[in-house]
Amino acid sequence: MAKTKSKKNVAIKFDTDWKYDPAPESKDHIRLQESYDLFINGEFSKPSSGKYFETINPANEKKLAMVADANEKDVDRAVTSARTAYDKTWSKMPAKERGKYIYRIARIMQERARELAVIESMDGGKAIRESRDVDVPLAAAHFFYYAGWADKVKYAVPGASAKPLGVAGQIIPWNFPLLMAAWKIAPALAAGNTVVLKPAETTPLTALKLAEIIRDADLPPGVVNIITGAGATGAALVNHPGIDKIAFTGSTDVGKIIQKAIAGTNKKYTLELGGKAANIIFEDAAIDQAVEGIINGIFFNQGHVCCAGSRLFIQESVAKKVIRKLKDRMETLIVGDPLDKNTDIGAINSKMQLDKIKQYLKIGVNEGGEMFQTSCSVPSKGFWCKPTLFTNVSQSSRIVQEEIFGPVLAIQTFRTVEEVIEKANNIPYGLSGGVWTDKGSKIFKVTSALRAGVVWANTYNKFDPTSPFGGYKESGVGREGGLHGLMPYLEVEHN
Ligand code: NAP
Ligand code: MG
What we know:
This protein has 495 residues and is α/β, with parallel strands linked by helices. It has helices at 72-90, 95-111, 113-124, 128-149, 177-190, 205-216, 231-239, 252-262, 287-299, 319-331, 351-366, 398-401, 417-425, 440-449, 482-486, and strands at 35-36, 38-40, 43-45, 52-57, 62-68, 160-164, 167-171, 194-198, 224-226, 245-249, 268-272, 278-281, 311-315, 370-373, 388-391, 408-414, 429-430, 432-436, 454-457, 472-473, 476-477, 490-494. The chain folds into 2 domains: 35-273 and 475-494, Aldehyde Dehydrogenase, Chain A, domain 1 (3-Layer(aba) Sandwich); 278-464, Aldehyde Dehydrogenase, Chain A, domain 2 (3-Layer(aba) Sandwich), CATH 3.40.309.10. The protein starts with 34 loop residues before the first strand and ends with a strand. Mean pLDDT is 96; it is low at 1-6.
């Protein structure tokens, strides 16, 4: 066909750089104090050392508040208060009454949902869309769910009697601060225990807001104590002789330290640790749906997710197509202000975490991986990482074997079901995984062969308080969520 040279036929140039107008969530309704004390025995009190540390907003590096640094003496005060509350009040109270308090916490959380979501995004860097639509509603849902268990605990194990353990020491990480606090506190209270909880150093604010909610819900003093500090505070809690159970969520390295520290004691424990999940796409999958699920699986919450789908296995025949679609979709992700309602990917939680991610990007390239990052620009202040994927990596690459905990996806291909199962399982972790296929039989085959606590099929990152969560291998010991999550807070005696 002859080409027309008419000027009229000059290709129209589209402006591909259309941007949404900023849509920031308001901060006017947020009340933050200049400094926060320790929540012990139903009131806020000063740390015995008089020391405070700052928590910043990782999106602009500005200070949000000063937070008390609890030392061994403060830990002792908190544990003693939890013990007294257990002996004198909480264990004596009818279970139905305990349930009412837990429902009350859930309802106040819902009333203050906007405030909690905004503070979560400011303190931790996650996109408001996530803190508003995932973290806060799920946290309240856990309190609602376990409130329902409070007066049914004695029926939880047929033919056996179940008693609370006493005082639970709970330590949580920075990636889901409020949600992890809910995962820990709600089942502990429902089972009849009292609690001392330590949030992470970089994200203590929503746990302190939860302390205010617990105070406003009129919980008897000492039933829940929330103490802030760094790793040393956590270690003091683990080593305190008055603790009956440790519930820890965090890295595998710290999990191992805790396991050693309590070996030979009567302390019970659950450990929710790291992960390196495999998402597996077969050639018969609904490709567009799978691409969307993989994007959600690794870039949700900046990849700061223990169950992030950080490894991707694509069946060879569709590899080119899937990688092209992934790159196209990644280009449309909006990276920036966590408080903007259009933002998909917020700030990396801390400078330390960003340095760790950058280190892994270098390792990936040095090992021969081919790195792709999107062309978006990122703000000059704050901690940011563009969505990244690696191809040309091998099973032994460090970025395939080790947890990066950032928005970095490592892609491999496979030919057969047996090969992909072998590769997906060839890793020290076993927290979660995902399978994408049109065939139900393949779903059953692969999900039962994967050594992982949770495997999603044709979806990813779906959570519900009724459903247990936890890992195989170095991903942890025990389960949280559902009836499984209640059991580690109970002493079961068979009649
Ligand atoms: P982390 O460094 O292990 O810290 C977790 C918590 O432990 C923090 O509160 C930390 O305090 C405290 N801590 C540090 N050293 C301690 C010690 N020696 N004794 C007692 N407590 C100590 O983990 P992170 O970097 O905060 O969190 C990321 C990790 O959590 C990732 O590996 C992720 O996979 C894992 N995670 C697992 C799950 C799950 O359900 N399996 C869920 C979420 C996250 P400071 O922060 O103040 O130092
Ligand atoms: Mg912070």
